[in-house]
Recover the amino acids of this structure.
């Protein structure tokens, strides 16, 4: 039997509140753990535990020299969205690790960026039943016009946590 996941419990509880409050709670909790996400200004817009939608506003602190969202901020957005949905579905006795990320920049971004990451039932079952493994988490990153600006492959691995 898998160990309970505290992040999953937080999501289940937060989703019981109105959406405006739920997204603030989830964003605060995520940015408290992932400091760079807080520095860049990432926001969790919504999640049902199988998908997550995150946003990177086109803030001055996340811009490049031409005034659009910086390439590194786009990578952070994709990595954060996939890591969040991966971590939510991982048993509490497992440790999530990014194994690799491949990013292809397709077009110049305009305005705010949004990432939608999803995980399948088969991936969740593998994470629940296998002591260690890895999987690619699907993510789509678009700008304010709806254009896909980057193509990503985020491979996440899990291992059993060592006792402290």
């Amino acid at each position: 039997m898998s160990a309970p996941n505290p992040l999953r419990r937080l999501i289940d509880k937060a989703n019981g509140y109105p959406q405006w409050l739920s997204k603030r709670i989830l964003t605060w909790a995520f940015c408290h753990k992932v400091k760079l996400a807080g520095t860049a200004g990432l926001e969790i817009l919504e999640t049902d535990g199988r998908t997550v939608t995150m946003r990177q506003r086109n803030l001055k602190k996340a811009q490049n020299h031409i005034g659009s969202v910086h390439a590194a901020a786009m990578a952070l957005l994709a990595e954060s969205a996939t890591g969040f949905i991966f971590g939510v579905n991982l048993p509490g006795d497992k440790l999530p690790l990014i194994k690799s990320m491949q990013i292809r920049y397709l077009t110049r971004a305009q305005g705010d960026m949004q990432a939608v990451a999803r995980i399948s039932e088969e991936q969740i079952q593998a994470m629940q039943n296998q002591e260690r493994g890895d999987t690619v988490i699907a993510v789509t990153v678009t700008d304010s016009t709806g254009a896909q600006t980057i193509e990503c492959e985020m491979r996440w691995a899990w291992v059993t946590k060592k006792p402290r």
About this structure: The longest helix spans residues 71-89. The chain is about 35% helix and 30% strand. Helices lie at 6-14, 19-33, 35-40, 71-89, 121-129. The mean pLDDT is 95.
